Amino acid sequence: MPMLPRAVLFICLTTAFSSAQALAQSAPPAPPVTVAKPVVREVVDSDEFIGRFQAVDEVSVRSRVGGYLQEVHFKDGSMVKQGDLLFVIDQRPFITTLNESTAALEVAKSSLTLADAQFKRAESLATTGSQSASTLDDRRRDLISAQANVRGAQATVDRANLDMDFTRITAPLSGRIDRRLISVGNLVQADQTVLTTIVSLDPIDFYFDVDERRLLSYADEARKNGSALQQGGGGLDVAVTIADSRQKPFKGKLDFAENRVDNETGTIRVRARFPNPDLVLQPGLFGRIQVQGSNSYKAILVPDEAIGSDQNQRVVYTVDTAGNVTPKSVRLGPKLYGYRVIRDGMTGDETVVVNGLMRIRPGVKVTPQLIELPQQATDDEPPAQADAQGTSQ
Fold first, then answer.
1. Could you tell me which CATH number the domain at 28-44+296-371 has?
2. Per CATH, which fold does 67-89+168-199 belong to?
3. What integer is the mean pLDDT of 221-225?
4. Cα separation of 201 and 174, whole Å?
């Protein structure tokens, strides 16, 4: 092979060097991304259930005596106190009955006075032999009968007085009253006709069902250090949110759990009680309640924005000091303190990309810009306010 002239070789080398230099100058700079260390702190998982509010006390108001409704003493839908007058049944028939029974009592008392005097007289004569023993026995029988008649007449008067009291129907409890279900002038059947209903509002109960899977999980926690759901509620702090997003979560306590699992649904019903001084919560409202679902443990937390997808896996991108990006497959948990819990796949010492995932390309280095994540990204107060919909993925 003939040797190339030195001039031609020099020209070739110069051209190659210039091309490499131009290529280096035209390469784009490493894209900037925001990176941070994950938050590592003690957390408690929470579980979310859907339930409904119910009144602690609810009563259907009925009359204990029959008659025609004469008066209504409340405004539909108003708040009433225990003992407030609600309805009045026409009292005239009961006044007549009371007067009759009172008169009968007076007659019985007069008969008792006569029988007592005759018995004492017969008893005095019998001691001197002027009265026979049989006559004395007759007078004793008359006295006993007169005493019984007085007691019976007194009971009739007491019953008439009681019926008179029952014509004035009062509120059996404090709360909000419904509309009147019957108008003045209608006949009221004793112990049958429902006149209205009253529900108590403060405090108010919230009922929800716990499924078998979570119940077994709670049972496992109970074997370790006790679980509130395994001990009839146990006073565990909980919080409930309603459909109105402007309302902050309402705080209450668990106070009851049923003693067996329902055969048909495989769930156990649990109750929480909430103070309701502003009467915002109403019976029948749906809500979402967050309940402590685990003991305290150390968790790795990252923002949701730091989590990407790789086919059917969830990944986070770690960055080293040279700007090299490495994806890591992770298993997610619930959302706490505004972050997502990483169940598996991280140690907590990594530096992860928290902003700029769209700029990451395979084999391309990045320019990391380090920030520090706050311990709490939102104003939520776990475990009660934690969003537990993010189960393991």
1. 2.40.420.20
2. OB fold (Dihydrolipoamide Acetyltransferase, E2P) (2.40.50)
3. 59
4. 9
Using pLDDT thresholds of 50, 70 and 90, give the confidence band for residue 366.
confident
* pLDDT one-digit tens code per residue, 32-62: 888 888 988 887 777 788 999 999 999 999 9
CA neighbor of 209 nearest in space, from 295, 132, 267, 152: 267
Say if CB 365 and CB 30 are below 8 A apart: yes
User: Tokens in use for 144?
Assistant: 């006993």
d(CA 360, CA 326): 10
Structure tokens at 355: 């902003």
The whole-angstrom separation of Cα 22 and Cα 16 is 10
CA separation, residue 156 to residues 50, 104, 159, 161, 233 (Å): 55, 9, 5, 9, 50
DSSP label at 227? -
Phi, psi of 91 (to 5 degrees): -90, -10
